[in-house]
Amino acid sequence: MSKNFINELRWRGMLQDIVPGCEEKLLEESVSGYIGFDPTADSLHIGSLVQILILMHFQNSGHKPIVLIGGATGMIGDPSGKSSERNLLSKSELENNIKGIKYQLSKFLDFDSNEKNSALICDNNDWFSDINLIDFIRDTGKHLTVNYMVAKDSVKKRLKKDSKEGMSFTEFTYQIIQAYDFYHLFKNQNCVLQMGGSDQWGNITSGTELIRKKTGKKAFAMTCPLITKADGSKFGKTEEGNVWLDPERTSPYKFYQYWLNISDEDAIKYIKIFTFYSKDQIEEFILVHKKSPHLRSLQKIISSDLTKLVHSTNDLEKAISASNILFGKSTSKDLASLDEKTFLDIFKGVPKVELSSDIFNSELSIIDFLHKSGFLSSKSEINRGIKENSISINKEKINTDFSISKSNLICKRYILAQRGKKNYYLIIIN
User: Fold this and answer.
1) Is the pLDDT assigned to residue 146 strictly greater than 60?
2) Which of 91, 105, 417, 421 is most buried as measured by Cβ atoms within 10 A of its Cβ?
3) Residue 357 has pLDDT above 80, yes or no
4) Nearest to 201, CA basis, from 152, 263, 138, 272
5) pLDDT digits (tens, 9 = 90+) for 26-43
6) Model pLDDT, residue 83
């Protein structure tokens, strides 16, 4: 093999549990392995990035990655790591979500190569839709005892006396259905390895047990640690919620900013997980960072690499430009280059006012215009600020002769007033 896949994950801190013999098996020959993604939304979020990167490492090591979309299991919801039952999705919602996830994953894995390790994508509804319930209970259910299933941590936690929700039979069946997925892929795609997060260990090993009992052969399992943040807050979350891979849900600018603002402690850990640099390169990056932590060199590497990977080089350039608008030197030309969503993301939380476009019908001086907008407390304060050269319109310093018109509108709707370096005021023209 071109690389030792397991060793690659091990030094990066991406390996938690592994079935004995798995590493040796992967060194002997190219194998097929899969990770499942439940279509709970029409986009994956950065919590799924580790699983995606594992599949990329897997393919880069010469193995064949299989992506399993849970079109059937998505109707149930995986109880692993959950304290309450998920809301069930409609069939149309699931179909829309599956479509979005398939599109996203095609950006990361090579599904179209002529090589033997070209990636494959499957939907477990393709086989579960044809399975008879009685046949499933008879042929599959008998191989996993209730005692075995109840012993799994994902089940035990929900069955504790202090659990408010308990566990429905619907959720209880999830592990045997996931186990059958592994068996089906083992039998039909020669898939010998299932991977996932550490909270999936119980479900995954149920699959290896089912394969052993039904075929007498050995399958393998591997998990990675769940990503945490040094401050104890949840990884991949902001005040607004999840950080999504879909640019319509989370703009490339916000995506870039999330990684740029991670702590130094997290950056030292994440540079290994979320980039593809070698061990020697990463050690050098960390050394440079520790010498001058204020430069945030690790954060810049991670945010740049991931923005390019998830979005594009062009989106990265726009995100950097957008960041400079708020935190560095920029011009009205830079503002004019922004799309409306990014512009609003940058200036979210900035005081704002809405004015009618009729305001342009009368020839107002810039002082009168700013006064009508509520910018600063009085005309005299505005006048004083202009004379002090501290007031800007759309990042350009102005004087009292400045003429405001519709031509100054950003995205045909906005004017950005500013006093000093950090005091912004957004004027919205309707």
Assistant:
1) yes
2) 417
3) yes
4) 152
5) 999 999 999 999 888 889
6) 46
Residues 114 and 250 in one domain: no
67 found inside a domain: yes
Number of independent structural domains in the chain: 3
Q: Same structural domain for residues 243 and 219?
A: no
Indicate if 172 and 39 belong to the same structural domain.
yes
Q: In this structure, what CATH number is given to the domain that contains residue 421?
A: 3.10.290.10
Q: pLDDT-derived band of residue 1, with 50, 70 and 90 as boundaries?
A: very low
Spatial separation of the C-alpha atoms in residues 301 and 332, rounded to whole Å: 28
Residue 400 lies in a domain: yes
Taking CA atoms, 185 is separated from 34, 156, 177, 198, 420, in Å, by: 9, 28, 13, 21, 62
Q: Are strands 220-224 and 191-197 parallel, antiparallel or unpaired?
A: parallel
Structure token pair of residue 346: 């940058």
- The CATH number of whichever domain residue 294 belongs to comes to 1.10.240.10
The reported pLDDT for the residue numbered 2 is 56
Residue 292 has pLDDT above 60, yes or no: yes
Burial degree of 54 (CB within 10 A; 0-12, 13-18, 19+): buried
Residue entry with tokens 């708020």: 326
Among candidate residues 368, 375, 350, 353, the one with its CA nearest the CA of residue 404: 368
Q: Which residue range forms the structural domain that includes residue 279?
A: 237-337
